[in-house]
């Protein structure tokens, strides 16, 4: 397409010498590909001018990386590099916003029933329970409630979410209140000039006290995307050795925001490996 450029390489030419992290859309939170964070000096990529920092690989041998997990995208890349010829579609930084908008377009404009069946769309989200989202990049604004991104489509294949716990996309995330069957991961993030670079989400406090707090999105700039380990859907358990169970989202955000630039935040998160996590809340 005009938005991306095609790079054709030989899989037999040795390692490329690039460092990649997940490329999440800043508009929808969808995983769209692999973000090239760094290129090693004296590497094949640097020598042949194959890639540049801050570009994104969005297709590998015509396989679209949208909505793949980071592990799946890496595996597709590894398998492709065993072939004689590898064709990559690369997104330059100056076209990123246009590409992210084009990735949302198929979700919003459906011409007919056939279009509904062929297009991967998240089910419409019922506006209860309300979700509060806080951006940790330094802004102090709160988004309250859930944005309903799609009107109810006239398709029998799409679930209607009027009843509690009938949502296939929200229930694994919001129901991930217990710590069983979850892998604990320790992540240290050094706060730089662009902040920690992720947003968090939770349910409104219920009669049982504040609900669990999850990572909603990894922003395109900040400590989280540079580190590459924190993922959307991770449940935050501890901050700097302090258990946050029972704490409100505002208390968690206050802890994180109190970290000064140059200091490191130690997070313990729980991750369910197999859970289907929503692309958009």
From TrEMBL:
Any one GO BP annotation for this protein: establishment of cell polarity
Biased composition (Polar residues): 145-155
Molecular function (Gene Ontology), one example: phosphatidylinositol binding
Entry-linked InterPro entries: PAR3, PDZ, PDZ_sf
One Gene Ontology term, aspect cellular component: apical junction complex
Sequence segments annotated as region (Disordered): 145-175
Residue ranges occupied by any PDZ domain in the UniProt entry: 4-92, 186-259
Protein name: Partitioning defective 3 B
UniProt lineage: Eukaryota, Metazoa, Chordata, Craniata, Vertebrata
